[in-house]
Specification:
By secondary structure, this protein is α/β, with parallel strands linked by helices. The chain has 11 helices and 7 strands.
Length: 250
């Protein structure tokens, strides 16, 4: 049963998101532990000011450049990502040419199929996930299961709301790892080549916007590769940590 949330409530958007996650859990899209992860992310978003900072927008631009210049780009979607941002995933995939693949830690085949269907309802096409045909080396969890046409064969992988161990495993495979993570201290944020410290929906919209801007300008592959390779992720994470510290001192 969905709660009625007054539009003038000061935490309206946050409460709407919580209702959305509760609904996704009841529909079998997310695992119970995903609710805990969402709460942790919301806490960091609060500390960061609940808006897209300049460093996040710049990171999204570098991410768009990396995806557009990729030989094979993939956007990895877990339950929380699909529940929160199915439409944004589809839009970012279209803008960058990245293929969507469902990948889960708490994996069951029925849940994979439900998530694929949810992405298809949002407009996704040829979504990967069922019947994986490869494994990421060094991972014992079900997150190792993936597709040769997707994550396994990709040179650039966008991993929103990612587990640290898989981000590190993808980095060991010499892939360009793009993370969306509200925690600038996480293993994922540190392991990634490009980390967008922002809420997942906002970050995906920024990537799509930047990708369309690059295409509108007719950016060459050389220009895109340069924009991606010049990104200083450690410096960007420092700026995010400093933003949190500044808000705590205020």
């Amino acid at each position: 049963m969905r709660s009625r949330i007054p539009r003038d409530h000061p935490r309206y958007q946050s409460l709407v998101t919580r209702e959305r996650m509760k609904d996704a859990f009841e529909r079998g899209l997310i695992h119970a532990t995903g609710l805990i992860a969402q709460g942790r992310g919301e806490a960091f978003d609060y500390l960061l000011g609940e808006g897209s900072a300049a460093y996040a927008k710049k990171a999204a631009g570098a991410a768009a450049a990396a995806l557009l210049s990729a030989r094979q780009a993939v956007l990895s979607c877990n339950g929380n990502v699909v529940a929160l941002a199915a439409k944004e995933c589809v839009d970012a995939g279209r803008a960058t040419g990245a293929r969507l693949e469902v990948n889960l830690f708490h994996r069951t085949e029925p849940r994979v199929r439900r998530l694929v269907k949810e992405l298809e309802k949002a407009g996704g096409r040829s979504v990967l996930g069922p019947r994986p045909d490869a494994r990421i080396p060094g991972l014992l969890s079900d997150r190792a299961k993936c597709h040769i046409e997707g994550i396994f064969g990709a040179d650039v992988v966008l991993v929103p709301l990612e587990d640290g161990d898989r981000a590190q495993a993808l980095a060991r495979m010499k892939k360009t790892v793009i993370a969306i993570d509200l925690n600038p201290l996480s293993r994922t944020a540190v392991a990634a080549n490009i980390t967008i410290v922002d809420e997942v929906r906002r970050a995906l919209r920024l990537i799509a916007k930047a990708a369309r801007a690059y295409r509108h300008r007719g950016a060459t592959q050389a220009t895109l590769r340069t924009a991606a390779s010049r990104w200083d992720n450690a410096a960007a994470l420092r700026r995010a940590r400093q933003a949190i510290a500044k808000r705590l001192r205020a």
